[in-house]
Amino acid sequence: xxxxxxxxxxxxxxxxxxxxxxxxxxxxxxxxxxxxxxxxxxxxxxxxxxxxxxxxxxxxxxxxxxxxxxxxxxxxxxxxxxxxxxxxxxxxxxxxxxxxxxxxxxxxxxxxxxxxxxxxxxxxxxxxxxxxxxxxxxxxxxxxxxxxxxxxxxxxxxxxxxxxxxxxxxxxxxxxxxxxxxxxxxxxxxxx
Length: 192
Ligand SMILES: [Zn+2]
Prior knowledge:
alpha/beta, five-stranded mixed beta sheet, 7 helices, 41% helix, binds zinc ion
């Protein structure tokens, strides 16, 4: 499979995206606008963790949702076009934010930090419901990162499908505090 490399934005550092040579696989303008908007929501200290985004072609893995290898985020053909990532009034790609949460987790060893806390807040975070196919502890960290950025930084309420009460009120604050106290946010002035 041949790939075309492009730059998402003219504003440095920008983000490179790859798309296949098949025109039917190319992202639409609205998909690119939403991805760019989402990229700027990532704290600047974390942006360099990603190398590039791959807009996967029809029929390529993953078939739905997204994936990553620690430096590259793969967005399935389906997810880029899914309602989840194209909700009117919410210009953010939820799948990208979740996958970026995995990148941050791997880079800063957030899951390991949370497990080592051995406290109620850490355990509650690791026990949060999750709808995806993989049921690893890291999924909770990726969700927490995604929801923190959405709700607290962008001010966009997010209904967690598997565990709606986990990210409301005090329960949400407790989970965000664990994330903000982790090495991923050391030295970053957290806003909430
Ligand atoms: Zn995940």
